[in-house]
Amino acid sequence: MTSSQTPASADTTAEESVKPNVLAALKRFRVAAIATGIGLLILVTVMVIRYGWDNPTPSQVWSPMHGALYMIYIALAVDLAIKARWSIKGILLVLLAGCVPFVSFIAERKVTHRVLAGRSI
Questions:
Q1: Per-residue pLDDT tens for 8-63?
Q2: Domain extent for 23
Q3: CB of 6 within 8 A of CB of 33?
Q4: 78: exposed, middle or buried (Cβ count in 10 Å: 0-12, 13-18, 19+)
Q5: Residue 27 lies in a domain
Q6: Which terminal residue of the chain has fewer beta carbons within 10 Å of its beta carbon, N or C?
Q7: CB 14 within 8 A of CB 115
Q8: The pTM of the whole model exceeds 0.90
Q9: CB of 56 within 8 A of CB of 120?
Q10: Is 52 in contact with 114 (CB distance < 8 Å)?
């Protein structure tokens, strides 16, 4: 990075070198990863309520909603993986990231940086 280049302009340059269809898929994936991460944290809270206080009602409502969020995450991750030409191992790791609390946030950041840098997962 040159002295006149700021981090923001470096991101803009990176975005310009990525194909528009990959960028669009990345933006959709980022929203899904964040939503899935938040949904998973809510699910953990709901499970604590269910088993800690013997109240199944919140989990009966939230569990199917989280399942739908995760299915959307899977579809958008695979869409991005196909467009960005990820390896099978990379796809599986990103899909598993949506199953572990907080990891989807970390995966979203790493995927974003690698895709903008033009590197495969």
A1: 555 555 566 778 888 999 999 999 999 999 999 999 999 898 888 888 887 788 88
A2: 19-116
A3: no
A4: middle
A5: yes
A6: N
A7: no
A8: no
A9: no
A10: no
